[in-house]
């Protein structure tokens, strides 16, 4: 058969009761560089285990996500990974996923199934301790919306650690975000700094940004206003994108450890598939600790 170029059809083989080697992977949007990287890392990790990712992009549409799960079933997927899912266990039950493993990565809803998430509260502790240790006492938090599923983890953590460090949030912290903002990019960072500069409060000396692109937009707008980073304002991003090492100043940021997150996701899914008896499998929730990457965008406040 090899001589004539024949290759077995894995889907047909799955229909006859064999393994297809297919894993459904569903994620919300391509606009986020870190999310696109996570999908790429997961695809590579699954391939290392002998599985193929069937990828669906749902653009933040819950009904499209349900449809994606149904499509995975029709393609005889053996399991699924949902990144940043908007669904609940009730949704997955409606799509007849009983008996097949699902891994939830950074779910937006509270779920009790298998899940791995970045420890976002810990990232806020790392950032605030770093800036406080440098001598900063006035802060602006840019783009972190407590009404957003992920902001709901980070803003309360900021408040908690401000209390621990005896920082008066009402007096010495500014919270700037647009609840209707869908794209969290460079322009959004510029817009938020514009609002910060027009405030009657004293200028913060430390900025904590939603992500690296917001941080970079903030740095550029500060420079246009005659304020240099880190001489006048220190700035910390989030995601550790490649650009962080190639801008001036290089950007201090949080590394989500995406490779470790996705490798552990793939390994756990394969473990569940090998076990076969999901009814006896104990669900687990694992938090991946992020790392602070210190570069040149943070320094002691200028006196």
Automatic annotation (TrEMBL):
Record has Glycoprotein as a keyword: no
Domain Transcriptional regulator LacI/GalR-like sensor: 129-298
GO molecular function, one term: transcription cis-regulatory region binding
Database matches in CDD domains: PBP1_LacI_sugar_binding-like
Keywords of this entry: DNA-binding, Transcription, Transcription regulation
One Pfam family named in its UniProt record: Peripla_BP_3
Protein source organism: Cerasicoccus arenae
InterPro entries, per database record: LacI/GalR-like_sensor, Peripla_BP_I
Protein name as it appears in the record: LacI family transcriptional regulator
